[in-house]
Amino acid sequence: MNNAFDTLSDDEVRQIAQLVETLDHSTFDFLQLEIGDLKLTIGKGAAPPTGVATAPVAAAQPPVAAPAAHVPAAPVVTPAAPDPSPPAAKAKGPVQDGTVAIVAPIMGRFYAQPEPGAAPFVAVGAMVRKETTVALIEVMKVFNAVPAGVSGVVTEICVQDAAIIEYGQVMFRVRPTETASNDIPIVA
Fold first, then answer.
1. Residue 18 half-sphere exposure, CB side, CA atoms within 13 Å?
2. pLDDT the model gives residue 58
3. What are the beta bridge partners of residue 39?
4. Which of 7, 16, 44, 64 lies in the 20 to 30 Å Cα band around 57?
């Protein structure tokens, strides 16, 4: 029997697996991705009723190239039309209290410290520079360091350690400073 995945490269299969894991940890029920002849539909739970209107969905992952005939299609439903601006753009700007949000650049599992039992990267009141690592986000056993992106004082930690976070979710709030003085202790 011919397996439909035999024509896909190992990298393409890994990308599809990453999309499946991303969908599994998200609030979405289905994802439909169409790139050229490729039509990939993945979902969790029961299939939606037929005749449901669908909207294009953009994936944060690189496109996967494969013939459309090899990927089974199923009806797809997407949530109500989202705000066209990305969540990160809405959350990064200063809020009324003068703080700036540090948001998740990707979806995954949030870690506040470099390893279990170690001290956290930052705590409330800590001074950070733009390049200071404030957290790790794990996606498929790959740990991604998250830089602060702003110099200032951490005023709030918005995520619990080991929680699943969404793209654009606020992780920290920082009260920005113009420049970090060399005599102020900086967490690196």
1. 20
2. 46
3. 34
4. 7
Looking at residue 23, its pLDDT comes to 72
Confirm if 102 and 170 have CB atoms less than 8 A apart: yes
With left for phi above 0 and alpha for psi between -120 and 50, is residue 69 left, alpha or beta? alpha
CA atoms within 13 A on the CB side of 121: 25
Kindly compute the dihedral angle of the four CA atoms of residues 8, 9, 13, 16, in this order, to the nearest 10 degrees: -80
Tokens 């003068």 locate to: 98
**Helix (H, G, I), strand (E, B), or coil: what is residue 20?**
helix
Residues of the chain with CATH 2.40.50.100: 87-176
What is the tens place of the pLDDT at every residue in 82-125?
444 444 333 444 556 899 999 999 999 999 999 999 999 999 99
Burial of 35 (0-12, 13-18, 19+ CB in 10 A): middle
Report the Cα 64 to chain-centroid distance in Å. Answer: 18
Residue recorded with tokens 């993945």: 42
Q: How far apart are CA 22 and CA 30, in angstroms?
A: 11
Considering the domain 87-176 in this protein, what is its CATH number? 2.40.50.100
